[in-house]
Specification:
Elements (H helix, E strand, L loop, with lengths): L11 H8 L5 E7 L8 E7 L15 H14 L2 E7 L1 H7 L1 H16 L8 E4 L7 E4 L17 E3 L9 H24 L5 H4 L5 H10 L35
Parallel strand pairs: 1-5, 5-6
Antiparallel strand pairs: 1-2, 2-3, 3-4
Helix pairs in contact: 2-5, 3-4
């Protein structure tokens, strides 16, 4: 297989699913699974079948990510953005919270009433299958609401699928905007710089100021501080929620 640097996005995985009889196939990706603070954000995207400029969000800088994300919103047939809060991550674990957020996005695109951060449907056809970036979705459990049954979950799909790359751009830029908004109210953490990840400056601030409700108390080094999980924003009124 070519190195990621030489790999260009395309439609290989979607084509495999089309060959199996699936029609409308979505791409799914997430941002924030490894952060100490803030939500996990999952994006679900369906693009028209053509060539697109979209690439893995990790391979471009902020300005280009924002421009490409705007392009996704211009071109996409459908998309959904879903947030799994720090509290949800602490309650059920980061993987299960990510899976639950992905399911909420797919349910929303199926017309079911579930909470989402953003939802656009320019076509009404039901989703038949999904391509993810190494995220094994429990499609076998979704029969009760007629969810997608086809799945491809190859590694580095965000570099190999236009749709997963587009989802990565929406998820990353949406989450970054949430963390910049949080930083306005909690400047000691520098969320606008590191977006809640465990860089040395964030660890230093966490040790000196303690966590706020944006922090995942099940994650080290937050857990190492010995503080209780599940504090609500009203218990620390100076700390913003992700949507503040």
């Amino acid at each position: 297989m070519p190195d990621d640097a030489l790999t260009l996005p395309g439609w290989t995985f979607e084509a495999e699913l089309w060959d199996e009889g699936h029609r409308l196939v979505a791409g799914i990706d997430e941002a924030g699974r490894g952060a100490l603070a803030g939500p996990v954000v999952v994006a679900v995207v369906v693009l028209p079948v053509t060539t697109h400029p979209f690439v893995d969000s990790k391979t471009v800088g902020q300005a280009q990510r924002e421009s490409l994300a705007a392009g996704v919103r211009e071109r996409a047939l459908v998309w959904a953005l879903v947030e799994a809060s720090a509290g949800e991550v602490d309650a059920i674990g980061v993987l299960q919270a990510t899976l639950a957020a992905a399911e909420r996005g797919l349910r929303a695109l199926a017309g079911l009433a579930v909470p989402v951060a953003e939802l656009v449907r320019r076509v009404e056809a039901p989703l038949d299958a999904v391509v993810t970036d190494y995220l094994r979705l429990p499609t076998q459990r979704w029969g009760e609401w007629q969810g997608p049954r086809g799945l491809r979950h190859p590694p580095r799909a965000d570099a190999r699928s236009f749709q997963v790359a587009a989802a990565s751009l929406l998820a990353k830029t949406h989450r970054d905007a949430l963390m910049r908004a949080a930083a306005v109210h909690w400047p000691e953490y520098g969320f606008e710089r590191h977006k809640g990840y465990a860089v040395p400056a964030h660890r230093f601030a966490l040790a000196h100021h303690g966590p706020c409700p944006l922090h995942r108390r099940s994650f080290r080094p937050v857990a190492d501080l010995g503080l209780p999980r599940g504090l609500e924003p009203t218990e620390e009124p100076t700390c913003p929620t992700p949507s503040a």
